[in-house]
Task: structure prediction
Amino acid sequence: MTDTVENENHRLKRTATYASVGVSMFLIVAKLAAYFYTDSVAMLSSLLDSTIDCIASCITVFGVASALRPPDHDHRYGHGKAEPLVALAQAAFIAGSSVLLIYEAASRFFSPHSIENELFGYIVMAVAIALTLLLVTFQHYVVRRTGSMAIGADRLHYVGDLAVNGAVALSFYLYLKTGIIWLDPLFAILIAGGLSINAFQIAVRALHVLMDRELPDADREKIKTIVSTRPKVRGMHDLRTRSDGERVFIEFHLELDGNMMLRAAHDIDRAITNDLKRAFPNADILIHQDPAGIAEPRLDEQIEVSSVRK
Result:
């Protein structure tokens, strides 16, 4: 990845985080006014969701800025794991808002309120859907370009917002047509369920990164194929991979002729590194060279034994 491309990706990340905060703040003001006008618990649910979005987006600004810092003396692997930490915090916020929303909606079943000024609610929801759709489209572009986990998590709950805003608009429509009051809190509870699913998905992805989960099997096989097709390579073992949300880390032992000169072994190492960089442009690669056939404890064998015991 060239410096120009990397700088552009960093700029896109920062822009996406600022756009997220700006949209969420505007929607908070609009939905707060709509809630006072309509007295709709579904609108309250959407307002609460946007408030949580704003808090989460502010945290995302901090997390992305931290993750973009280069490696330093105390963090030689860089600061990339700030992004999954932010994503985990987002999941906690979303889960908490779901619990509060379910409580408020349940109370409305026992003391129902009629919805007022439905037209104003429609207008606010239309604006919210349009702005959120624009934001999600831009975030999707940024995630595809940069692979940012924090922005990906931010995008995921804004995708959920589209469903939330659509559900609120639908609840207004159904109330207008049927006059059934309990449809409003019912939609709020359904929205809370959707938010909980989003929170779970975000948390799982973040924990996979924080726990150094291996790359998908397809990527691992791709690495093995690239290494094995190089001339003079006798084999490889103890392949370990992980990701910090943006970069991937690839480590393995490379088996070469034990009588090979150091310079020749280094040249093979560099050639393999370049091949892997073409396949994984954002990879940090560490290769340990071993004489082929040497007997030593291996991680692969330990994992195999552990799997059999299970």
Summary: Strands lie at 235-243, 248-256, 283-291.
